[in-house]
Amino acid sequence: MPVITNPIGANWSAQAGKLVKASGAGAGEVNASALGLATVTDAKWTVRADSAVLAAMPADMIATGYLEGAANNGGTDPINIQLDPTGTALAGGPPTGDNLDYWLDYWLMGVWDGVTPLGAAQSDFHILCGGGPYLYSKLYLNSASGYDPPGFAFYANGQPAATLSEMTMSGSSAGTVHVPWGKWCRVTFHVLYGNPGVYEVYVNGMLVTSAAADTTTVSGGWSAQAMQLRFPAWGAGVQWRVANIQSWKGTDFSLAPMWSLDEADAGNLVTRVFSCVGATNDTARQQGRCWLTSGTGAVTSTQYNLTGSSPLRSRLVFSGNGSTPIATSIPQIGGLPFDDHDWASIVFQDVSAPAGTTLRMRLNKSDNASELYTFYVTGGKLYVYYDGSAPLGLADWTETNRYLLVVHLGMDGRARGTLVNLTKAPYDASTKTVFSFPLPSWTPQIIGQVTLTATTTASNIEVGQVLVCRRPTFSLMDSLTATSYTAATPNIRTASCVAASFPCGEETTIIPGGYWPGQEFGLKRRVIVCPLGASGAARWQVMPVATSGLEHTAGVEYLCLDGGSINDIAQVQTGDSGPTLSFCKAAISRFIKTAMENDCAIWFGTMLPRGRSASATASGTGTITLTSTAHGVAVAGRLFLAGFGGNIDGLWLSGVSIPNANSFQITGASGTGSYTAGTVTGFSTQELAAITTFNANLKAAIYANGERGLVSLSDVAQDASDNPSYYPNTGGSGGFWQDFTHPNTAPDSNAYQGAGMVAKRMIALRAISPTAPPPTGGSILVV
């Protein structure tokens, strides 16, 4: 295809260490033109050739050097790299007609020193055609959003269209991270000239943002424009690095998701995400997309658009009454990323096939013409065909609900399936939500494209992202309350389902090699594909009920987490916890045994007490007395006070006594004597005793089944006892602790509080279970 600009940097190493000048270079300097550029912001860029920095790029990078901007850009104004002389219109001449494509491709790294404070979340222009109205992209800094490390996101906009478009809106643009600091990413910018025209940004080969606009109205005509890269000043600790700059025109530009960035890391549990964003029926313009549409009717891509909460996933919508719309994946599934126990999985997320419709989800062989497996939904049933064989019934399919389908494939030819009802009703012990089944054995091979064929009625069919996983992750939690979300029909989560609060797993970016939430805690790339456990279930109910139906589920990871305590067990509150705790122990043992038989990994965490709160009044200037009738807190030495004002709000670990059932006393503080009414949060004797027993039972069950390296434990309860200063009580009036599934609770200057601190300690403490209990009285050994 025609090359427009090619200052790729293949010979830049000869200029290493030189300051780049717009013109008039002297000793130790080099003119921008010598690097293939029209101009730069004068004396703000230096040519570098650090081999370690260059080696961090994928192998297809051919540059021998890169441009590095001055820290803080040498001031407060952005600095520019201009690719072509002003007035040449993308260095390729003014467009002469509609439907002309222009592409700019380059590598970018944002460098933050990790020490200098970053400012509040903010945005600035990045790629633009100067002179308004114009088209532009933005870089968005989100340092104040609680991400650690922070990073930056990409946006596209077009004036006069003036509609910001971004791939994963998470409630506000400040909450989105595409790329972390210190990591090269490939950025591609696309303009389709015309009315309507298109303006797009791709990161690591994946379409991340797109805006439609009349690009023919750019101010002054295209002959007056010049393409620029503009880099914002975000503080003295920020620098920008740029390399491999190229541009083309035409539709034959090859660009595909760079999944190799994820596949190369054996610790990543998810290696490919077939995003539904940007599904297209344009066979000439498939760059950065995962789905090509065809057939009658329509296939469109949309998002849940639930602000302030996940799921942040895209989905395909098949519509057209009586039509047969088709979506075929542009890339292949490829070779499966088998885990260390020889399983891999393919996940179909959030599938809705209403009454009267039919849906075929077909995995093709590598020739893309013949069938490997086809999963067929019709008439309230799920069937499977294997390699042209007769259909085999698998499970009932409630046509008003939404499902998750996971296909587990073993390297030895075994095959299993799991179906999870995502539209769960309020907790009901008689409602089965998980179904698993054996599938016809397969011949291990390279898998080709995915084909989704729908037969629609007045009701639409929907299919979410398709994932390729070493191990898909299921979460197992106790009761949490949640708001009902109705953006998806049928509701993807009901009012009483835990999934609305903790959806399906911190999926704020699908970019290969990009930022993945949880990285700040040391987690590898994973997607929690579904929760097991509906709100309203006590801990003793969750394990036997939520896991019922997992008998054939193979090669997955279970995160067995708890919101804080088992104080939702009525027997514990009355002191009669023995039978209930024995039931919990037996249920956990059965679950571990089943998981081990199916090569599933389990990550447990011991429980922390959530606590109970009571209203109180405070008085006194020496010994402070808190009056709270029948407060129910019986354990001194760990209270959290809030709302009193004065000088007593916060955590009290010492100087606390409980003289009777209606009061507390705090000594060792010089009270101000001026307090308002507040709340005291603490623990009951029965609760702590029950949790101690539960944790002992949990560890005993783990140690008895700790073979094969599949069971791990984070003993946060012991750690909290040994290191109480690591566990600030910031859970709010609902209790001291929140859970691992909400790690960014109450971020403050990137210092995690409450659940975030618990999550970080869970990562630090995670250990593969030994076959014998460790010595008591100390934290579990980290291995």
Helices and strands in order, then pairings?
Elements: E1 3-5, E2 19-21, E3 29-31, E4 39-40, E5 45-48, H1 51-55, E6 66-69, E7 79-82, E8 100-112, E9 122-129, E10 135-141, E11 151-158, E12 179-180, E13 185-193, E14 197-203, E15 206-213, E16 227-231, E17 238-249, H2 260-263, E18 270-274, E19 291-295, E20 298-303, E21 314-319, E22 325-329, E23 343-351, E24 358-365, E25 371-378, E26 381-386, E27 392-396, E28 403-410, E29 415-421, E30 434-438, E31 447-455, E32 461-464, E33 466-469, E34 473-476, E35 528-532, H3 539-546, E36 557-560, H4 570-573, H5 578-597, E37 601-605, E38 612-619, E39 624-627, E40 639-642, E41 650-652, E42 656-660, E43 663-666, E44 678-682, H6 685-704, E45 711-714, H7 716-722, H8 755-765, E46 767-768
Parallel strand pairs: 2-3, 34-35, 34-36, 36-37, 37-45
Antiparallel strand pairs: 1-17, 2-5, 4-7, 5-6, 6-17, 7-16, 8-13, 8-17, 9-10, 9-16, 10-11, 11-12, 13-14, 14-15, 18-33, 19-22, 20-21, 21-32, 22-31, 23-28, 23-33, 24-25, 24-31, 25-26, 26-27, 28-29, 29-30, 38-39, 38-44, 39-43, 40-41, 40-44, 42-43, 45-46
Helix pairs in contact: 3-5, 5-6
Structural class: mainly beta
Q: State the distance separating the first and last CA atoms.
A: 53 Å
How would you classify the quaternary structure? single chain
Q: Please bin the fraction of helical residues.
A: 10-25%
Largest β-sheet summary: 10 strands, mixed
> Poorly predicted ranges (pLDDT <50, ≥5 residues)?
91-95, 159-173, 305-311, 479-483, 498-506, 563-567, 569-575, 729-752, 776-783
Nearest-integer average pLDDT: 78
Strand tally is: 46
Mass-distribution shape:
globular
Strand content: 25-35%
Number of helices: 8
- Computed CA radius of gyration, to the nearest angstrom: 29 Å
